[in-house]
């Protein structure tokens, strides 16, 4: 579908733009910040994902004649604003936490600096991407921890919106997954694609043996055969008879997975197929994966619970104005004082401190640009902010397949630097506190 990311937004972004262009405040310099006030209940940490997709969208964030005609015909904005939008390109700067980084309540995950007019147009797109992708990556990371060293694969495409499926596949890999069944995601982002056959493939053949033979003829002996359409024990026996002991793998998609995996492993070994792997699927989540740690399973396929964030499909991230140019042209920190929704004024720095090579605190430093420029963190603190966009110029190192691979590897490293309780599936508080200092 050919569409403009500049219309993937809420109408009030454009009505605010229109009003501020009329009163002269649209060109005031501003700093907006993305953060979450809390993690999903009981979660110990979150994983940032989606920044690369934001940068991809930013490259196409402009309106063509048809888009402008739509805004004009609907009278969303005035003719003067239509003219302002004709050659719109984001010319501001963006920095924040890199993909794969851990985040906590009040972490300044993304900071967007530019004029009010251009920054406000990005709000909905940024939040929709970061909220969903980070939710999936956070769930994926918990699942990968529960699976220990066994690879997890995304099979959630049929359990969500078709475009969300592509985003989820990418975010899952950032979160630690090894591949996806979604071919569009594999094509777009260079991800490993996985998949062989479903139960209908067995059912369309006159016998299970015919189905297995057909699949092996097409894909070779290293393929994975689905063995729970009828009787698993008979299917495993038939699979080895057809493929021989070189059979690549079998998949189980129903029943008591731990017990079945144990029986199948013993059966495969008895038949001489000692190198044949076992993959299990069927509504897995991190708790099911943890329960399968002692079972002889080699890999997992995860669907519904992955693409729904394992019960937390959003991170509750918000996009708030924290600093703006006043009528005298001076940058001024601003904040909401709403009950239970108050914000911390000013642009931010973010660091993580360590003791004995383990993270012990997230430090958020807020203040004016001059005050932050003069600030010196303590020795050993890690700077968590990186530059993504500099005055409209996107840094390409944060886009594409290599960026996803780097994020995948970084997540594992960042998680290993947290106290081990981060990997607990028991409900608890964030694994490290966040301390906010206003200069």
TrEMBL record:
Keywords: Glycosyltransferase, Ligase, Phosphoprotein, Pyridine nucleotide biosynthesis, Transferase. It catalyses: 5-phospho-alpha-D-ribose 1-diphosphate + nicotinate + ATP + H2O = nicotinate beta-D-ribonucleotide + ADP + phosphate + diphosphate. It holds the Pfam family NAPRTase_N. Its EC number is 6.3.4.21. GO terms for cellular component: cytosol. Residues 7-131 form the Nicotinate phosphoribosyltransferase N-terminal domain. The keyword Phosphoprotein applies. GO terms for molecular function: glycosyltransferase activity; nicotinate phosphoribosyltransferase activity. One of its GO terms (biological process) is NAD+ biosynthetic process via the salvage pathway. InterPro entries: Aldolase_TIM, N/Namide_PRibTrfase, NAPRTase_N, Nic_PRibTrfase-Fam, Nic_PRibTrfase_pncB, Nicotinate_pribotase-like_C. Residues 152-323 form the Nicotinate/nicotinamide phosphoribosyltransferase domain. Transiently phosphorylated on a His residue during the reaction cycle. Phosphorylation strongly increases the affinity for substrates and increases the rate of nicotinate D-ribonucleotide production. Dephosphorylation regenerates the low-affinity form of the enzyme, leading to product release. Pathway: Cofactor biosynthesis; NAD(+) biosynthesis; nicotinate D-ribonucleotide from nicotinate: step 1/1. Signal peptide: none annotated. It comes from the Bacteria. Catalyzes the first step in the biosynthesis of NAD from nicotinic acid, the ATP-dependent synthesis of beta-nicotinate D-ribonucleotide from nicotinate and 5-phospho-D-ribose 1-phosphate. Belongs to the NAPRTase family. This is Nicotinate phosphoribosyltransferase. It comes from Bifidobacterium biavatii DSM 23969.
């Amino acid at each position: 579908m050919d569409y403009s990311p500049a219309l993937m937004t809420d109408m009030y972004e454009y009505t605010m733009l229109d009003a501020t262009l009329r009163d002269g405040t649209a060109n005031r310099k501003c700093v907006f910040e993305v953060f979450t006030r809390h993690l999903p209940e009981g979660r110990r940490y979150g994983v940032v994902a989606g920044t690369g997709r934001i940068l991809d969208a930013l490259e196409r964030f402009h309106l063509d004649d048809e888009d402008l005609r739509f805004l004009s015909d609907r009278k969303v904005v005035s003719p003067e604003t239509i003219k302002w939008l004709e050659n719109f390109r984001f010319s501001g700067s963006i920095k924040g936490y890199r993909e794969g980084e851990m985040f906590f309540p009040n972490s300044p995950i993304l900071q967007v600096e530019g004029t009010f007019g251009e920054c406000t147009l990005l709000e909905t797109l940024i939040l929709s991407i970061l909220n969903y992708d980070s939710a999936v990556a956070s769930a994926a990371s918990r699942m990968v921890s529960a699976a220990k060293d066994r690879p997890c694969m995304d099979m959630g495409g049929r359990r969500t919106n078709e475009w969300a499926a592509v985003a989820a596949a990418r975010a899952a890999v950032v979160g630690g997954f090894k591949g996806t069944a979604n071919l569009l995601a594999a094509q777009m982002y260079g991800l490993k694609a996985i998949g062989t056959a479903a139960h209908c493939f067995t059912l369309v053949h006159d016998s299970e043996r015919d189905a297995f033979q057909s699949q092996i003829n097409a894909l070779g002996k290293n393929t994975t055969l689905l063995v729970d359409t009828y009787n698993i024990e008979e299917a495993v026996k038939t699979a080895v008879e057809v493929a021989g002991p070189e059979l690549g793998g079998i998949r189980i998609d129903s029943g008591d997975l731990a017990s079945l995996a144990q029986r199948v492993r013993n059966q495969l070994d008895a038949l001489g197929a000692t190198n044949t792997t076992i993959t299990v699927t069927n509504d897995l989540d991190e708790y099911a994966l943890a329960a399968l740690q002692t079972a002889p399973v080699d890999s997992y396929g995860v669907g519904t619970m992955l693409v729904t964030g394992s019960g937390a499909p959003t991170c509750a991230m918000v996009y708030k104005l924290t600093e703006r140019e006043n009528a005298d042209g001076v940058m001024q920190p601003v904040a909401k004082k709403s009950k239970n929704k108050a914000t911390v004024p000013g642009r931010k720095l973010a660091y993580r401190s360590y003791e004995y090579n383990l993270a012990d605190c997230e430090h958020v430093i807020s203040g004016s640009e001059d005050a932050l420029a003069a600030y010196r963190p303590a020795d050993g603190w890690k700077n968590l902010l990186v530059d993504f966009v500099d005055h409209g110029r996107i840094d390409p190192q944060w886009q594409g397949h290599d960026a996803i691979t780097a994020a995948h590897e970084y997540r594992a490293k960042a998680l290993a630097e947290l106290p081990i309780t981060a990997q607990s599936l028991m409900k608890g508080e964030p694994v490290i506190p966040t301390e906010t200092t206003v200069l």
